Amino acid sequence: MHDIYDFDRVVDRHGTYCTQWDYVADRFGHADLLPFTISDMDFETAPCIRQTLAARLEHGVFGYSRWNHDDFKGAVSNWFASRYGASLEPETLVYGPSVIYVIAQLVSLWSAPGEGVLVHTPAYDAFGNMLVANDRVLLPCPLKKTEGSYQIDWACFEQQAARPDCRILLLCSPHNPTGRVWTRDELGKMAAICQRHGVKVISDDIHMDVSFARYLPWSEVAPDDGWALVSSGSKSFNIPALGGAYAFIANAAARAAYLQRLKAAHGLSSPPILGVLAHISAYRDGAAWLDALKSYLHSSLAHVATRLNAAFPAIDYRVPEGTYLAWIDLRGLGIDTTERMNELQTLLVEKYRVAIMRGDTYGPEGSGYIRLNVGCPRSKVDQGLDALIGALGEVV
């Protein structure tokens, strides 16, 4: 199907104020590196979105706008119904400028300074940064690697949830960086434990549309209304620069408190109209493009597995259940300390001129891993793999 769309076409993103390409030196010290870093993609967004935005730009007037209407809320809720068979009520949906903004407000509403938030680790680094900035404590539940996959340590999960200071489970679904797509049984068990201990749930589902296993929204297992599902089309349709996210907040009082913060406390009542329109267009007309994208990304991840495992069988890389992020375990090659990872990173940057995220960015449980973003044409993936295989050949 992806033959209809040209995901192999290389688009030069330099000079567009692009974080991944124009600001790679901020993290890696050099501006001329080939980046596989922040999780956006090098692909043009879906044609339907580009056409919608072009028509709106042609109109030429960009006054204050609204999000609280049937077009936006209906497009989002209908997407969940048609793609995932989930019944999420449009009236429970709210807008936010970003997923992390919405999560931060909910964390502030549902916990007090010094209290704990349960997180599966390794974890998206913005979670930890946000919790520290809001004076909350990250309560880690390290995932266990078993036969190439990552499983929940249920004894640890129950122990952390039972802590008197644990107020919230901050779930990443699908999980970044491991690529796990949680099963119904796993979600149901988490839900039962959280209900038993009075722990509210914030589910960050921003990677939901790039799931290769069956993705299930939290709403389908929630035993009560103590939850929120936060997401955006920004990852799946590659539109983070347009702005915009949303959340289904099940509890009416929590929803009202969030909206009071959004509109009154933070003065964010008028959203960027291009982001709103992009979401409406994506969720109404973008399904075929997304299906083609998923097929291409899955093939790219399989390609990573083929090449890496042929060069270094000890890596035993497995295609993830979701996301376009390859979470690669290098510990079998002896890259299992900070010093060894520093050696590899220095070689990748200084000699091979590529930027790949090191795993300990996502917490100590990521030590010995790297995270390779394959949301790009296959030719770029191969350039990254050439560099990685070459560098590994020198250090192991």
From TrEMBL:
InterPro entries in UniProt: Aminotransferase_I/II_large (IPR004839), C-S_lyase_PatB-like (IPR027619), Class-II_PLP-Dep_Aminotrans (IPR051798), PyrdxlP-dep_Trfase (IPR015424), PyrdxlP-dep_Trfase_major (IPR015421), PyrdxlP-dep_Trfase_small (IPR015422)
Keywords in alphabetical order: Aminotransferase, Lyase, Pyridoxal phosphate, Transferase
Enzyme Commission number(s) of this protein: 4.4.1.13
Pfam families with a match to the protein in the record: Aminotran_1_2
Signal sequence, start to end: none
SUPFAM superfamilies recorded: PLP-dependent transferases (SSF53383)
UniProt-recorded Gene Ontology molecular function terms: cysteine-S-conjugate beta-lyase activity; pyridoxal phosphate binding; transaminase activity
Ribosomal protein among keywords: no
Cofactor: pyridoxal 5'-phosphate
UniProt entry tagged with the keyword RNA-binding: no
Domain Aminotransferase class I/classII large positions: 32-388
Family: Belongs to the class-II pyridoxal-phosphate-dependent aminotransferase family. MalY/PatB cystathionine beta-lyase subfamily.
Matches recorded under NCBIfam families: C_S_lyase_PatB
Full protein name: cysteine-S-conjugate beta-lyase
Record lineage: Bacteria, Pseudomonadati, Pseudomonadota, Gammaproteobacteria, Aeromonadales
